[in-house]
Amino acid sequence: MLQIGFIRQNADFVKERIATKYFTDVNSVDTIIALDEEVRKLKVETETIQAAVNLASKEIGMLMAKGEKDAAEIKKQEVAQQKSSQQNLTTQLSNAEKQLHDELVKLPNLPHSSVPKGKTPEENEVVKEAGIKPTLSATAVPHWELIKKYDLVDFEIGAKLTGSGFPLFKGKGAKLQRALIHYFLDYNTAAGYTEYLPPLMVNEASAYGTGQLPDKEGQMYHVTEDGLYLIPTAEVPITNIYRDEIIKEESLPIKMTAYSACFRREAGSFGSDVRGLNRVHQFDKVEVVQLVHPITSYQVHQQMVDHIEGLLIALELPYRILRLCGGDMSFASALTYDFEVYSAAQQKWLEVSSVSNFETFQTNRMKIRFKGEDGKTQLVHSLNGSSLALPRIMACLLENNQTDDGIALPKVLHTYFGSNVIS
RNA sequence: AGAGAGGUGUCCGAGUGGUUGAAGGAGCACGCCUGGAAAGUGUGUAUACUGAAAGGUAUCGAGGGUUCGAAUCCCUUCCUCUCUGCCA
């Protein structure tokens, strides 16, 4: 959520920036400013009356103490009149506040100045492409065939147990997942991230804090009986750890990593995009989150990109880094880099990580602040990135490394997996 | 899941209707004292909104109610602890 004070002072800038995200209703900025003015005006009015009421109440207290009952009664009647005139204002105020909040929550974050212009994924800017795309033999097959061949994942039984999109990992497939999670967490903690293992369900306040609510309600599984949501990413519980906290400045940056299962309803997907492990309702992911001092956030963002790039290099996968254009960025992000790996048999790029700087968009909702040297509290910046999403990594590892003798695993996984090859 | 107890500032802890944003203590910060430190001592020590400022408003888990006035009374709800039950 954008800060109202900032909108008030930079209305034109806000409109201009929002437009690059192809947010449809730029006029809502004007609505917000008008509502904000109304709210503040009504606040002053009601608070003035309240101040008078409070003062009178104290006077009544003193009169009662002195035993001057009659004088107290007269005061009481005065207060009663003031209160009746206040009631109407209070109703107006709470209505206006609610409207203001509803509008404010619908505004997306403002894209950073380096965000490329564009509306569709095709207009994302390729910042870097590296690694070697393998030349596969004529007999090479996509990962869903390899999965069958080596009996790594059973989609049919997953569907039997739960439904489509809930893969059942099995044998070496399950072990490869474990090896990857283990390796990713080790890599992150070695870089100074503290490891967490979070709850897989969160309450409404947490889902709201990171921006899943109210914007993306339909994308989460909702346990209505208990008012809980299955997490779409560990980002949600992990970032919310510091909700409503004031952090000591010297504790910044706070670096956290977590493995979790992720649940996404992903309504409306279809076609070859959803084959095999390309898109599923439940998947494993390791996430990194940082809470940082505002002046360092873009530097940290770049460090996180480098950090995640290191994983892909270690996994020996061909990858590319995209700077997302305004139209393809998420609601809450100010700047996002996506990582994609090249899936050689499918001959397509698959997104495996998204590294974003949210600036104060999330922390304003969560009220995550620090107290600076000047004694003023201000919001920290939050950032996060996947490191990494497992299914597509697995798909690429299988497809790109397939040989007649099995799947040759990258060196870094040998110890974790306990073997050099899946055969 | 049932029974009971409780949630107050950074922490401990007092407070059952009237200048209580909140006693007292600890911690922390700054100063004095000291050769230096400890001890001692003085001052300060929440957050948000609003206002140029003075100030004002709100906040004692959360939400609602009673009252001229609520940390204190009532209702709802969340959480923690103890006991019982159940269970990986």
Q: How are the secondary structure elements laid out?
A:
Layout: H1 4-9, H2 11-19, H3 28-66, H4 69-106, E1 125-130, H5 143-150, E2 153-154, H6 155-161, E3 168-169, H7 171-190, E4 194-196, E5 201-202, H8 204-209, E6 222-223, E7 228-230, H9 235-240, E8 246-248, E9 254-263, E10 282-292, H10 297-314, E11 319-323, E12 335-343, E13 348-359, H11 361-366, E14 369-371, E15 377-379, E16 381-389, H12 390-400, E17 402-403, E18 406-408, H13 414-417, E19 421-422
Parallel strand pairs: 4-9, 8-14
Antiparallel strand pairs: 1-11, 2-3, 5-7, 6-7, 9-10, 10-16, 11-12, 12-13, 13-16, 14-15, 17-18, 18-19
Helix pairs in contact: 3-4, 5-12
The chain binds one RNA strand of 88 nucleotides through α3 and α4.
Overall spatial form: elongated
* Structural class estimated from helices and strands: alpha+beta
Task: Return the average pLDDT rounded to an integer.
Answer: 90
CA-based gyration radius? 27 Å
Name the CATH architecture of the largest domain: 2-Layer Sandwich
What percentage of the residues does DSSP assign to strands (E)? 15-25%
Distance between the termini: 50 Å
Sheet having the most strands: 8 strands, mixed
Predict the CATH topology of the largest domain. Answer: BirA Bifunctional Protein, domain 2
